[in-house]
Amino acid sequence: MNGPFYLFITGGVVSSLGKGIATASLGFLLKRRGLRVIPLKFDPYLNVDPGTMNPFQHGEVFVTEDGAETDLDLGHYERFLGTNLTQTSNVTAGQIYASLIQKERRGEFLGQTVQVVPHLTEEIIHRIHLLEQQADVVLVEVGGTVGDIESLPFLEAIRQLSLKAPGRTFFLHVTLVPYVSTAGELKTKPTQHSVQKLREIGIQPHAILCRSDRPLSQEARRKIALFSNLPEEAVFLEPDVESIYEVPLMLHEQGVDRYILETWNLPVDSPDLSDWERFVQRVLHPQHTVRIAVCGKYVHLKDAYKSVYEALIHAGAELNTRVEVQWVDTEALESMAEEEVEALFEGVHGVLVPGGFGRRGVEGKIRAIRYAREQRVPYLGLCLGMQLAVIEFARHVAGLEGAHSTEFDRHTPHPVIDLLPGQDLFEKGYGGTLRLGASPIRLKTGTQAYALYGHNVVLERHRHRYEFTPRYREMLERAGLVVSGEEPIQRLPEIVELPGEVHPFFLATQFHAEFKSRPLTPHPVFLGFLRAALERSGVSVAAEEPTG
Ligand code: GLN
Predict the structure, then answer these.
(1) What's residue 1's pLDDT?
(2) Structural domain of residue 166, as residue ranges?
(3) Which of 407, 416, 487, 492 to mutate to test the pocket of ligand 1 (most atoms within 8 A of CB)?
(4) Ligand 1 centroid to 381 CA: how many Å?
(5) Residues classed as catalytic
(6) Number of neighbouring beta carbons within 10 Å of residue 73
(7) Rounded distance, CA 260 to CA 206, Å?
(8) 325 and 235 belong to one structural domain
(9) Best exposed site among 39, 238, 438, 455 by fewest CB in 10 Å?
């Protein structure tokens, strides 16, 4: 090889095509062929990172090991590739402009007019080059849709880069081929136009990946190929599937990975995908079912809790179990009568409160936690779900009336969750002021957490500002709350749980366990939670594992 290969993925026609899943799936397939693959997502918006965006705008903020707040597609990349990524794998237009303007102020362009071409495009190309040392293939997904004004510099940059790497690039264009029921036909025109748009920019795709809810007819394939200047075998289909984890297998079946390798003149062998196939089989055809209530305020937007949902799928597959998620709107929960709450949680085998910010729906979440604790329903709390479990316990078990987090009530008599002294909140502005990224946690022997992990020290990822207030720790421990994991330097509580005699499974983590779950290596905390849920549903878990 005389330099890295570049697989560029662009999107056309509409957004939300599942380009991220396609990118992650191809990364997975190339990795299984023995290539070192590093993905990079370009996001054309001007925010420096998605950390300051509302989940309705953006879905989940995925946090990497090194503490970058990134696009949720990085979650897909990590899960499909099974590797930890860093900040360098998610670059926004905001970051590119910010670093260019800093350079200009430092005088690095003295005398010159700083322009989109060549300066901005060079900065973009530089971000791709940064990843090359460790990769055989750099997988570059350009966010947005071809034709958007803001993605133009990125497309121009990859066009320029491709000229310098003849024979080492591959442009894959992902489009939508809609079915128009009144005509009874698949329509290829939007795809044709989108490819024309791409070619106007100077990019001739090597292949088209069509999203469609049905198989492509011979006629549709022929038209797309003809108008795209491509042979028919370069037109592939990404069909709608029940599970996103089927996508790599579907692409492989059609030979997309083989086609890319042949274009690059790389050897083509048969990768072993049997472990993944087994995993997909367990996702699609499990023996058992549990119902988990996920209680949050963004339940109308499933992408807001993407990693939580995927972590449930992974642990479920390991336990041969389908996880039916019942999304519970915690704002609605606040005003419900007791019988309504009972009816809502009837038939639920586990309650999960994920992370969150802001006051809205908080009392509803506390109500859900109280229900789970009192009714002995398995409970898993993540980040805010841990802080609220501490508040609920303080109020209703330790008798600290009005206990709260100062995030929601600055004048609470019992700030059991608070900023640490010296943690000046908005001194630096909002962006990047949280505790972010992976740090070690020491587990206490003899606890549920210790039994689940089987290690003394684990590394988990954070994204929060507030902490379990150390001076309340002893009082709450005396009342029966177990602190089973702590941050080793200041001894900040990281995991709380209730002892097995009191509750079948009640455990909550200050970190986001969901970010480290992978299809083939589910997260221990999610496994523990689902095992308990499965028990509650009447299945004896001991006989179930491992499924192989
Ligand atoms: N809002 C809480 C904090 O800032 C929890 C954050 C979260 O759940 N990610 O500490």
Answers:
(1) 56
(2) 5-277
(3) 407
(4) 12
(5) 383, 512, 514
(6) 23
(7) 9
(8) no
(9) 455
Last residue of a domain, one of 255, 277, 299: 277
Query: What is the model's pLDDT at position 505?
Result: 98
Q: How far apart are CA 151 and CA 82, in angstroms?
A: 28
Task: Look at ligand 1, atom 6, and give the residue with the nearest C-alpha.
Answer: 464
Q: Are residues 421 and 360 in the same domain?
A: yes
Domain match, 345 and 292 both: yes
Q: What is the pLDDT of residue 427?
A: 53
Pocket of ligand 1 from Cβ distances under 6 Å: 355-357, 383-384, 387, 407, 463-466
pLDDT < 50: residue spans in the chain: 546-548
Number of domains in the chain: 2
Angle, helices 384-396 vs 362-374, to 10°: value is: 70
- Which of the listed residues 62, 353, 387 should we mutate to test ligand 1's pocket, taking the one with most ligand atoms within 8 A of CB? 387
Specify the residue with its C-alpha closest to ligand 1, atom 1: 357
- The last residue of one of the domains, among 223, 245, 277, is 277
* CATH number of the domain to which 300 belongs: 3.40.50.880
CA atoms within 13 A on the CB side of 473: 17
Which CATH number belongs to the domain containing residue 233 in this structure?
Answer: 3.40.50.300
Q: Considering only CA atoms, which of 105, 75, 81, 83 is closest in space to residue 31?
A: 81
**Do residues 317 and 245 both lie within one domain?**
no
What residues pair up with 212 in beta bridges, in sequence order? 239
Q: How far is the CA of 242 from the centre of ligand 1 (A)?
A: 32
**Residue 547 located in a structural domain:** no
- Specify whether the CB–CB gap between 448 and 484 falls below 8 A: yes
Does 118 sit behind a cis peptide bond, omega within 30 degrees of 0 on the bond before it?
Answer: yes
Sequence-distant (6+) residues with CB within 8 A of 537 are 288, 289, 290, 291, 349
